[in-house]
Amino acid sequence: MGGVTELPAEPAEPGGSPLLPVEPGYRAVLRTRLVLTWLPLVVGATIFDNVLLDGTPYFGLPTIALLTLGTLSVVLAPPRLYRRLGYRLTDRLLQVVRGWMFHSDTVVPFVRVQHLDVTRGPIDKLFGTATLVIHTAGTHNSVVTVPGLAPERAAEIRDVIREQVRTDFE
User: Please, which residues have CB within 8 angstroms of residue 129's CB and are 6 or more apart in sequence?
Assistant: First the structure.
């Protein structure tokens, strides 16, 4: 389970480079976000149990059910999501492949890039990750993100794309 990369090995074009994985700390980011999502639900179920189901044969079922589902998602989902997220940077495009249940393979030609951002929330800062946000021309899927990058790597990719976009207009 740990350390095994299940990213697709096939390059987008013949002779292309393989997909690169994101930072290992991104698993902890995913896990923390899931804990923060499930925690209020479990607390709500506990309150529901104590207020409305106390003394009934169903007392404790909502709490146990949500606690079990939350624990399973916190343990099982982050490694799967991490293994199925990768990116490839060439001299003309950025490709982002992700998906566990729903597979997505997004290719962003640099000529379509409008502007770039590198974002870091408190959880990202805690685990040393950042997200590269690429805004492209068009309306459908006009924002592409590459989460889980090291902050230095996100800034490096941003600068490479920015320089490439700049030379395309000269």
Answer: 22, 23, 25, 26, 29, 120, 147, 148, 149, 150, 151
- pLDDT digits 0-9 by tens, 40-74: 999 999 999 999 999 999 999 999 999 999 999 99
> Considering only CA atoms, which of 80, 46, 81, 82 is closest in space to residue 66?
46
Query: How do residues 6-18 score in pLDDT, each as one tens digit?
Result: 444 444 454 468 9
Q: Would you say 52 and 63 are in contact if contact means Cβ atoms under 8 Å apart?
A: no
Cα(136)–Cα(67) distance, rounded to whole angstroms? 40
**Token code pair at residue 7:** 């990213």
- How far apart are the C-alpha atoms of 137 and 147, rounded to whole Å? 20
Are the beta carbons of 130 and 116 closer than 8 angstroms? no
